[in-house]
Amino acid sequence: MHWGWMRRGVAVAEPVLQVRALCIEWRGADGRTNRVVDGVSFDLAPGATLGIAGESGSGKSTLARALLGHCRPGSAITSGSIRLDGENLASLSEPELARRRGRVMAMVPQNPLASLTFHMPVGRQLEEVLRLRAGLSAKAAGLRALELFGQMGLPEPERLVRRYPHQLSGGQRQRVVLACAIACDPALLVLDEPTTALDKTTEAQVLDLIRRLRMARQGAMVIVTHDLNVVADICDQVLVMQHGRIIEQGAVGTVFSAPREAYTRGLLGAALRVEEASRATHAAPGPTLLEVKGLSFRYARPSLLRRNPLGPPILDGVGLSLARGEVLGVIGESGSGKTTLGGIIVGLLGGEAAAVRFDGRPLPGLSAQRTREQRRRIQMVFQDPLSSLNPRRRVGDAVMRPLQLFRGLERREAARCAASLFEELGLEAALLSRFPRQLSGGQQQRVAIARAFAAEPDLLICDEITSALDASVQAQLLDHLAMMQRRQGTAMLLITHDLAVVWRMAPRVLVMQGGRILEAGATEAIFRNPQNPYTAALLGAASRAARAGQGVLAGTGDKKPL
Fold first, then answer.
1. How far apart, in whole angstroms, are the C-alpha atoms of residue 550 and residue 539?
2. Which of 150, 162, 262, 483 is the most buried (most CB within 10 A)?
């Protein structure tokens, strides 16, 4: 730690991070430039944690990446400085930055699956970081990897090191990436939406882990998030961004309890809560559209000893029914089987024959075995929109394709319909010409939703569709989604870990754990009076997460130093 000046006779630490008048511009396909970060300045002291909050597209993730010298293709730092331990990162070459990443500064990205190598066991990936960045021997790196996985609270590290990323739950992958990031004890750790894809119980565990890491190390942390409760719970300082500029900054307690700007007050008031969100209205019961009976599923495990080895059950005797135009919520912690259920219904995974019936007829297991009309009628919006969009095609093409393929529209008419869908979801038509990586996470998710509705489906599987959205955009999107769902009469299976989204959208809910349905019924009845201890624990975790931040948000409690 560096000690730079005296304040009232007490040594004050020099800032680890100093950002001055930082500007980042992005050049579009038409040659025009757009300033996405505009004159940002702040300091961050050793051991301090800074939260960066703002709506989707506000520039917060662009700023976070710039702290490690990263700029998206087509963008560049045009002015200003980023000094880490006194060294201006903006003036370093790419090889010089690469030598510092992982050792001096490190990042935990929003999507842990995309940052892990899919064909390499997670233990070997961590060992590679330790050998290449920390200079450990192969044996020492193996031992240190086990130690770090244990510190992350991962179960059975000796076995887990041999697993591949797709064999881990979302919370486990997030902790693996966190272990890789802190392996060399960097001076600056940047976390981009670290709890976005996690259920409330897993989120509480990860936040507790981040809190303990903060207490154990003197490095500075920057947490980018749209969840203001996370900022209130973890951070000392906060920056509120809009259109690339800092709207408000200061101590978390001061900014959140007495915000000066109307924009900040709007963000604070937009959060959906189970206690406050309007309850979903029951539609008139219609004929059954989807029926699942006794569905079980296991992933195959490669083995030289057995022909068809099967792993543990992911789904075990699952049953549900969904009427036309109905919205059904599915909740449960990470690894409960929610996404697997959605994948089987949409045809990405092959389930048991005759276990799934659609519109009164058995539904073939895999999508390739279904007719074009069946594929049109069942669509899915995935948890990670970036992975579901072709990085080489403009997002307008992604939305126009189902319009041309399923509805037979000419390109000009398809472009007009795509622009209309964008407008309905709060996106500018100008974004149609951009590539997926040129959009924010929230914008990518809305593109994926527009693509799904372009096919005019009868059934839409929504897998964590609001996980990448800030509170204000989430509320707007849910309003748009409800309007589109009612207009098209689309039935929805709403898979989410956000209980407030279910409370707002779904009259009925299923609660899953370990591949089984523990509880099912009217959302209000289950949320008000859960009969299963697991459901009560889920609701309790959601309430604790809200209360952790509400004391600071409302100015009714003092934030304890961590």
1. 16
2. 150
What's the pLDDT tens digit per position in 144-181? 999 999 888 888 899 899 999 988 877 788 889 999 99
306 and 389 co-located in one domain: yes
Coil, helix or strand at residue 37:
strand
Residue 181 covered by a domain? no
Which residues are registered as beta bridge partners of 320? 292
Residue 104: what pLDDT? 92
pLDDT class for 11, splitting at 50, 70, 90? very low
- The strand pair at 17-27 and 75-84 is best described as antiparallel
Secondary structure, 3-state, 475-526 = HHHHHHHHHHHHHHCCEEEEECCCHHHHHHHCCEEEEEECCEEEEEEEHHHH
Count of Cβ atoms closer than 10 Å to residue 318 Cβ: 24
* Residue 139 resides in a domain: no
Q: 460, 458, 450, 501: which is closest to 479 by C-alpha?
A: 501
Residues spanned by the domain of 239: 13-104+187-269
The string of DSSP codes covering 374-409 is HHHHEEEE-S-HHHHS-TTS-HHHHHHHHHHHTT--
Tokens of 102: 């992982």
Query: Which SS3 state, helix, strand or coil, does residue 424 take?
Result: helix
DSSP 64-133: HHHTTT---TTEEEEEEEEEETTEEGGGS-HHHHHHHBTTTEEEE-S-HHHHS-TTS-HHHHHHHHHHHT
410 in any annotated domain: yes
Compute the distance between CA of residue 100 and CA of residue 472 in angstroms, rounded to an integer: 36
Both tokens of residue 543? 């309430």
Angle between helices 170-182 and 138-151 (to 10 degrees): 130
Question: Model confidence over 45-55: pLDDT tens digits?
Answer: 988 999 999 88
Q: So what's the pLDDT on residue 545? A: 52
In angstroms, the CA 224 to CA 197 distance is 14
Residues in the chain, overall count = 562
Residues 452-505 have pLDDT tens digits of 999 999 999 999 888 767 667 777 778 888 888 888 899 999 998 888 889 889
What is the amino acid identity at position 437? R
Confidence of residue 282 (pLDDT cuts 50, 70, 90): low
In a domain, 495, yes or no: yes
Residue 84 has pLDDT above 60, yes or no: yes
Partners of 224 in beta bridges = 52, 192
If asked whether residues 314 and 345 sit together in one domain, one would say: yes
